[in-house]
Amino acid sequence: MTIQLLPILAGLAGVLAALVLSPLFEGAVRKVTAIIQSRRGPPITQAYMDLAKLLTKEDIEVGEAPFVQRLAALLSMASITAVALFVPLGGAAPLAGGADGILLIYLLMLAGLSVLLAGLAAGSTYSLIGMSREMMSMMTLEPILAMAVIQAAYRSGSLRLDAVFGGAVYAGAYGPWSGILLMGVMAFGLQAFVGRLPFDISEAETEIMEGPLIEYSGPKLALFKYARMVKLFVYTGLFVALFIPRLPACPFWLAALIFLAEQSALVLVSTLISATHARYRIDQVIRYYLALFCVGLAALALSLFGL
After folding, report:
1. Range scoring the smallest mean pLDDT among 123-137, 195-209, 215-229, 278-292
2. What pLDDT, on a 0 to 100 scale, did the predictor assign at position 31?
3. Pair 75, 236: CB distance under 8 Å
4. Most CB atoms within 10 A, among 57, 106, 157, 230?
5. Cα–Cα distance between 10 and 7 in angstroms, integer?
6. Domain count, the chain
7. How many whole angstroms separate alpha carbon 70 and alpha carbon 181?
8. Is the dihedral of CA 179, 192, 105, 257 positive or negative?
9. From CA 73, how far away is CA 66, in angstroms rounded?
10. Own/partner pairs for 26-31, CB < 8 Å, 24+ apart?
11. Domain span at 7
């Protein structure tokens, strides 16, 4: 019974870490950005206070379909939290017997679809523009992550997450070059996956005033904001889990600390990019995504030849 409970407890630990640490990562992002831009900036705990304030505000509904708006907010948070359930904190993937790479891809797509539903249900011009931009991004970005999962599954011979994670993209008897190339693709696309500058085109505040979320306030807006923070934690965790091999015979607490340190390094790099780059135009972004997609396809083809 204890052995069966361990994967469940490990998964819950991942969810708890995502929920607790995500606002802290967001606060660190804001603080580092302010320092780079020669500002004092908010305290590192500001994200916690923002979420608490939004959750206590009145929930005003002004969209075309209030029920769909509520559903989209809940779906956004639930789907990305479900992904956090399977992200390993430095060890083997928790609940690996109950999930595989296909479920992982579906859950991440569901998180994106919730934003599309939010924009459609709001019904305003700005929300529809933001929704269309989010849709274009999903069509070119989500296949890139799918390529990484497929390549890891092909090299490991299994879709189980405990086989997919741990650097399986360039492990085994095959040459590592396709995995290294795919890691570069994911590294250049990470900023877009988490929706940060210069790729936050669907929520461009100075252009379309937060796009799909323009008609949201109170608890629903808090759920969307919280889900965006958790997304940063989840995608950096997935990057580490996919491309950085696990340390053998390492205590869980040490493996978790190393994992969080690697995530923090990725968050720092993402913050430096956001603070030093202006937002790209929509045509520039789509060309960038397509270039990453083509390189990812080339990496996948190379893996079929054992390179």
Report:
1. 195-209
2. 93
3. no
4. 230
5. 5
6. 1
7. 41
8. positive
9. 11
10. 26/229, 26/232, 28/264, 28/267, 28/271, 29/232, 29/267, 29/270, 29/271, 29/274
11. 2-304
**Cα–Cα separations (whole angstroms), residue 11 to 92, 259, 281:** 10, 15, 39
- Block residue for tokens 């606060």: 27
Residue identified by tokens 């919730």 is 114
Whether the link from the prior residue into 198 is cis, omega within 30° of 0, is yes
Cα(79)–Cα(114) distance, rounded to whole angstroms? 9
pTM recorded for the entire structure: 0.91
Q: Which amino acid is at 139?
A: M
Q: Are 217 and 57 in contact (CB under 8 A)?
A: yes
Closest by CA to 54, choosing from 218, 220, 214, is 218
> Which residue reads 């990562």 in tokens?
25
What length is written for the chain? 307
How far apart CA 133 and CA 116 sit, in angstroms, is: 9
Place of tokens 């320092």: 35
The C-alpha angle with vertex 16 and arms to 15 and 22, in degrees rounded to 5, equals 90
Phi, psi of 100 (to 5 degrees): -140, -175
Residue 296: count other Cβ atoms within 10 Å of its Cβ: 24
The vertex-137 CA angle with 136 and 141, nearest 5°, equals 130
Residue whose token pair is 């997450």: 161
For residues 224 and 55, the answer to whether their CB atoms sit within 8 Å is: no
Residue type at 252 in one-letter notation = F
For 160, phi then psi, to 5°, come to -60, 140
pLDDT at 172: 61
| pLDDT tens track for 77-107 | 999 999 998 888 777 778 766 778 888 899 9
